[in-house]
Amino acid sequence: MAERLSQLTQIVKVQSSSPSQSQSSSLKRPMASSLGTAASSRIFAASSSKARLYLRSSYSSSPSLISFSSSKSLALCPRFCRHQRTSAVNVSSSGRFSTGASPKCAASDPDQLKSAREDIKELLKSKFCHPILVRLGWHDAGTYNKNIEEWPQRGGANGSLRFEVELKHAANAGLVNALKLIQPIKDKYSGVTYADLFQLASATAIEEAGGPKIPMKYGRVDVSGPNECPEEGRLPDAGPPSPADHLREVFYRMGLNDKEIVALSGAHTLGRSRPERSGWGKPETKYTKDGPGAPGGHSWTVQWLKFDNSYFKDIKAKKDEDLLVLPTDAALFEDPSFKVYAEKYAEDQETFFKDYAEAHAKLSNLGAKFDPPEGIVLDAGPTQAAPEKFVAAKYSTGK
Question: Residue 19: is its pLDDT beyond 50?
Fold first, then answer.
């Protein structure tokens, strides 16, 4: 500790010394490279000669990650706070150093989040892209591994899915189209992180399709580069050799239980499987040949843009060849534990909505690093079902 204190004292002293002395210090370079010479000069110039070093145990393992907190933030908050919070550097008026960030800053701006939500609603009305936006949020969050503590190595809702290396994972086939749809909204609202935007789009799509209100919170921090993307293989497969075991292996790794697995599976009431992307289903059916949106695909339900409990009813009935049932879908009524919940949801939509809303919110938070730590809540009030948004005769064919 004494040696580390001495090294950090040298950093402060170097900043007030002559240029030649500054250049001779190897300890200064890692900090300057991440912040820029001008920024670091301004920061250290603001510290007093009586600055008091405050060391945390984390310094010993990664001294180059030291940052400074400030109640005044030295006007650095707008520049560093939103998208590079992990590299933000501040100095308090007392000269106290810490790894914490200014409590006045946040990963996303609440007003911009609200405006982005309205733009997402307009996008849904014109593109009918509810299913793929749900999938986008799920696949960003679904890489979470509860056995890994470090962020972002643990995966989860951190915006990593925006990078090509992760978009190319087999389970993410076609999601580049979702990113193209959402990118103009991201460009418009720079104060919203990708991690928040993906989850905002997913929850809004559920609600606008007539599903329950999701008790969401925001403030997720983005990963900074493709090197922080998770490895391939963390997302579920549609047709594994042992479907029930596979679902548990993947979702238990995320920290989810059997009830949550079944409830989340119910989101297949929305959307279509396209064989050119997933390898499953028919190229088109009587329910999908005319769209809306791009025609084709194989839907799980007749009204595949309406969120309700039809998924469970239709799988249980197994009477329509034009409705898709994957091995992982069938497992919900074959596995004894899963079947308890699947049967309940087929009979009781209100219970399904309640359990689904809770499970969706939990999934959307997995692995996320929130700033502020408690998150940002946009809406107050109890969770309740949204009004029905779609009419079957308008959004499906074959009747």
Answer: no
Q: Class assignment of domain 243-359?
A: mainly alpha
Q: CA-to-CA distance for 357 and 203, rounded, in angstroms?
A: 9
CATH 1.10.520.10 fits 109-228, yes or no: yes
Domain with CATH 1.10.420.10 in the chain: 243-359
Residues 63-88: b if buried by 16+ CB within 10 A, e if exposed: beebbbbbeebbebbeebbbbebbeb
Q: Where in the chain is the domain with CATH 1.10.520.10?
A: 109-228
Separation between Cα atoms, residue 258 and residue 58, nearest integer Å: 37
Active site residue 139: yes
Contact present, 236 and 139 (Cβ < 8 Å): no
Report the predicted TM-score, pTM, of the whole model to 2 decimal places. Answer: 0.72
In angstroms, what CA-CA distances link 286 with 244, 282, 299, 301, 394? Answer: 30, 11, 10, 12, 14
- Give the pLDDT confidence score for residue 294 in this predicted structure: 84
* Close Cβ partners of 340 (under 8 Å, ≥ 6 residues apart): none
* Selected catalytic residue, list 83, 130, 139, 246: 139
**pLDDT tens track for 168-198:** 999 999 999 999 999 999 999 999 999 999 9
Q: CA-to-CA distance for 92 and 76, rounded, in angstroms?
A: 12
Contact 349, 86 (CB under 8 A): no
CA-wise closest residue to 86 among 67, 70, 72: 67
